[in-house]
């Protein structure tokens, strides 16, 4: 972490090499995503990459985790909640981890289509469409955005995930400003432009 901070503030010798390199590339392992003290190593590397216009990729074992990080979603099932008796709400998006442990006084929402461990523990299940039933964007191991198209219609009451979130936001009086897929993609472009240019290497 000390070395990364030195590179970030410009005091490390490698900054000269980064500045003069023609096609610099940083490849990160998934361990970099773990927080270290008050500063996350991933944030420092991302800052360094943007500062020197360096391409960087993160190798990760969890599907779509890197795209979630690009959008600012920081936690998956690798979290802990203190069981202090206070009410808690957990909303799982396709998380089916049999080792998931939640406090006793937790209201658990499961949204997805696999319906295994997460759904069996949930107080409420929100049926989401599978990848074959919706138009979606995914990031592959190279960091390239790829799009899927709906091959079949979602069954019964299943809906696209973004439509479910939009409906819940309206019920809770915190309505999101997305009424169409185009508006949602525009917001994605503001947060992480690389995710809306499909099949192109924009990193």
Automatic annotation (TrEMBL):
Reported cofactor(s): [2Fe-2S] cluster; [4Fe-4S] cluster
GO cellular component, as recorded: membrane
Domain Molybdopterin oxidoreductase: from-to ranges: 2-170
Pfam families from the UniProt entry: Molybdopterin
Organism: Medioppia subpectinata
InterPro entries, sorted: Mopterin_OxRdtase (IPR006656), Prok_molybdopt-oxidoreductase (IPR050123)
MF (Gene Ontology): oxidoreductase activity
Protein name in UniProt: Molybdopterin oxidoreductase domain-containing protein
